[in-house]
Amino acid sequence: MTVEVAKSYLIRRNEDNLHLKDFNDPACNLTKRSNYTHLVAIMSLNTCGTTLEPSVDHITQNEITSADPSEIISRQHDVEIAFSCVYPKRANLTLGFRHKNPYAFRERGFGAFKFQFEFFESKRFRKQKEASTYPVEVYLKQMIFMEIDATTSIPNTELFVESCKATPYDNPNSRITYTIIENGCVRDNTVQIYPGFKSQFRFGMEAFEFIGAHEEVYITCSVILCETGVPGTRCTQGCIRSNSGNQRHKREAIAETAMHSISQGPLHLIKTSDSQTSGPSLHVGMNLMFIVDCLLVCGVVVYRSRRSKAKYQPLPNSDSD
Predict the structure, then answer these.
(1) Which end of the chain offers a freer environment for a tag, N or C, measured as fewer CB atoms within 10 Å?
(2) Are strands 136-138 and 260-269 parallel, antiparallel or unpaired?
(3) In sequence order, what DSSP letters do the residues of 80-107 get, joined into one string?
(4) The overall pTM is greater than 0.70
(5) Smallest Cα–Cα separation from 103: which of 310, 259, 303, 293?
(6) Local structure of residue 209 (DSSP, 8 states)
(7) Are the C-beta atoms of 28 and 66 separated by less than 8 Å?
(8) What are the pLDDT digits (tens) for 13-71?
(9) Using alpha carbons only, how large is the chain's radius of gyration in Å?
């Protein structure tokens, strides 16, 4: 912790007696780093008498005081400047960038099955992004193409995507989220659904960024595998509007799997540099210069052409008079 306190009149009057809770450690001496205008104290979280108060958040506390630590009472106006630092108990951490392998599950009635979530180069879905290229770099508003593919040995199955959301961290429970699909209904107006097999879900959307110091986007989807053609499964219900009053769904134990969460990412938002930003305007400027140059050249050619049509007559000389 670093603490800086302006030297008021009261502080200057008691400056020689000011100290932290624990002043026996030479590293906790206030005169070591202080200057003419400020008291400066730098300490670790477990030195100089700093204490930890457990609460909803971790709080470390200390104080700058002029009170005599060897006395119990005082009858003078001592300087007491309490200070604290708060550290959250929980934090979201992303440890590197790694392409996520297929998610494998096993359930009664369906045996072993997998969900694979991939980004693709184009809406043709012929070439997926290589694992070595992660994080996948995209520009704002660039279309990104995604495919979720279910693999199972059970025939006549279909995939249903219940929801998809974006987070700035590799944590689907992040406080910051953006809804893409909810209750089987598309929520983002840039989403495009592309045709595929029943065991596939192909979609695309425009890339975006989270407001704030976030340059990555992770996509997490909740998916279900159903037996094709069985009435009442979540797959057959499709999109359920929030105002329909029919959001509760009783799972058909044999005809559909439990809902599983899968994710992929990150998408890394490329910040456009000044040179890239000025690219279109630069091209426009160059085109305008080219047009102006053409006009100037064309003007000169026309002017010379007009001059070439002038008729010249010889002047009479003095010998003819």
Answers:
(1) C
(2) parallel
(3) EEEEEEEE-S---------PPPPEEEEE
(4) no
(5) 259
(6) -
(7) no
(8) 888 888 888 877 777 888 888 888 998 888 888 888 888 876 656 778 888 888 877 76
(9) 36
